[in-house]
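User: Predict the full complex structure for these chains.
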Amino acid sequence: MKYLHAFALLIALLWSSPLWAVQPDEMLSDPVLEARARALSEELRCMVCQNESIDDSAAPLAHDLRVLVRQRMQAGDSDAQVLDFLVARYGEFVLLKPRLSWHTAALWGLPPAVLLIGIVMLVVVARRRNDAPATAEPAKLTATEETRVAELLRDEGAP
Amino acid sequence: MIPEIGHYALMLALGLALIQGIMPIVGTRTNDAVLMSMAAPTAVAQFAFVAIAFGALAVCYVTSDFSVLNVFQNSNSQMPLMYRLTSIWGNHEGSMMLWVSILTFFGALVAVFGTNLPVVLKANALAVQAWIAAAFHLFILVTSNPFVRIADAPFEGRDLNPILQDPGLAFHPPMLYLGYVGFSIAFSFAIAALLEGRIDAAWARWVRPWVLGAWMCLTLGIAGGSYWAYYELGWGGFWFWDPVENASLMPWLAGTALLHSAVVMEKRGALKVWTILLAILAFSLSLIGTFLVRSGVLTSVHAFATDPTRGIFILAILILFIGGALALYAWRAPLLKQGGLFAPISREGALVFNNLFLTTACATVFVGTLYPLALEALTGDKISVGPPFFNSTFGPLFIALMAAMPFGPLMSWKRGDLLGAAQRLLTAGLLGAVAIAAAFALEHGGPVLAPFGVGIAVFVMAGAVTDIAERTLILRLPFRAALRRALGLPRSAWGTALGHFGIGATLLGIVAVTAWGSERIAEIKPGASLDIAHYRLTFDGLFSRAGPNYHDVVGRFTVRRIGGELIGTMEPSRRTFPARNEATTEAALMTRGVSQLYLSLGDPNRDGTVPVRLYFKPQVLMIWLGAIIMFIGGGLSLSDRRLRVGAPRPAKARARLQPAE
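Assistant: Here is the predicted structure of the two-chain assembly.
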């Protein structure tokens, strides 16, 4: 199914003539700041693409956002400030890792909840088993099996 | 004529599927052996007609019959034969044909080789299999007919999407579908067991080979897709947490859990009810994956199947099968008898731990993939859930699972000895610690946690080796005796060890390449050089080259060790396809051990410089080698004597069943 992904990417690529994501001329000369910008870019969505970060995307919008992120950083913003700025401008859709809020509570809460419920259920089942030790009753035979057993037993007894 | 034959054969297959879906069930209800025995021959006949339909479509593609709309849209007479064949499933209609072909093929296999199955179970399972087939035949005939003709046949086809003109297309979708559809067998058997209200350890023995085979194909299919994306997309990403990828990961996680719980059921008769649920879930997730990809619900660029009738049709199939199966489960599962007591610290306990974490991981991927869709549908709020979310939720779960994994095979059934297992894993643990220290000493930069990831990966691999060493007593017995023991080990024991070793190898690759991969982005003039890791690449210049249906602009780069000998050349290119006026990047890869140099080329500038992206990907091949090792482990386990011989059967019964084929 990856080819669908490839297909999506192809379309994204065709939207812009420069082939790639991060272009040499976008990059900052300060390697520390550039590394920070790259790391932050991976958390930001290119909003016209399908599930691509602005670091990966070749769309013109992603280019503009990368430049914007770098400008804010050069102006002295912290990572959190850059994110706040972008969320204020474009909405939460821009974040690839949604913030915890009432409408993402189920998203963030479900994995630990599943784990917790699983553990509780296991404990409960184990307790119940211990309280009532096996009255291990073998499965009932069907009518055909009963007759078959009877046949076999008869054969056994015959000679 | 040929497309019409295909179309007609598919309709007949639908008819046969309906017969196969109804008659045997009536037979099991009325205890009519004749009706029950209809299941097997109809399953074989149904497959024969689907094979005719698929063959007809293949003939249209091979002969480039552009009067068929599907061929016109996706093929071109200039394409090499291999791509004309693979383009059969490089589009929606054709890929659904592949889906039903595999589905009915598996049904026929059960019919032919399932001679030792209890008659009622076999009849019910084949009937359920036929319901699935009927739903998909109908889906194809109503919404996605590949045999539609064009009144005035065009002279030339539109060509296959260039990015799909790759050997990856020959391999990746069929393997994935073998995996997805393989789980349908486990599903059918689960439903059959619920219908009958009976299940036992033998059930697990019949189902396990199917689950194992499906899991193997899915493992390799996912890995193949990952490698394809890695070399094709031009920047060397291997996993994107894209919904389409998640759609294949979810059945894999559920299938892996099923594989392990079926072991408990087969060996100890425990976890029956849970195993049935997992069998239902694994296939349900395969169906959901099909829905996600095929319905266009993923919106925007992915929606090349945006026709809403298709989406609604698949959604209906989904609700019918998943809802029906879960309702049946809720109703009938309490009838199934639980069995096999075990202490929490035991092999069973370890496998329960495995199931708990795999299921949670699967639920995490599920909610992360579907939450944005659900939220937007319910409230209109748009949020994005991307790689950072999955890394911070799925990551810890999987790491915890991996850290616990080596303990499982060292525990005994019923009541295990955690301390004893820990003592035997001491060497593996020390190796892991050494790996952590080495990673800290040798690598600089990267996340602080990365060396610990390496440590866990090494611990897992060493743990798998420990498992085999303990079973063969290689450190205590003379070599010859140990070798005899090694040859005498059940193949499933080797399968377990290899499977675990493989996932450890994959983890090692993922951690290493993510943490310590390096990248150079630059514009380069002929004659200039770029350094990365221990290598220096010199740009010799551009030249052009013609292919069968494309044109390449190639850059040639000479690779040297810095301050040392010549290693070779790399030739990345920009490939243009005139039929669609589209272009792809063809990255150049150079393998050094299990690491790779990765080079891709941009469009040349007017001043003669060329933008290039150069990567060093340390240990990257471990990711896919790990998957291949897992596949081999699965294969060994599949060839285990226990599964080959199957349940004992009386010779008389065999003779009676044979004419039915």
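Chain B has three domains: 2-393, 425-516+626-630, 518-617.
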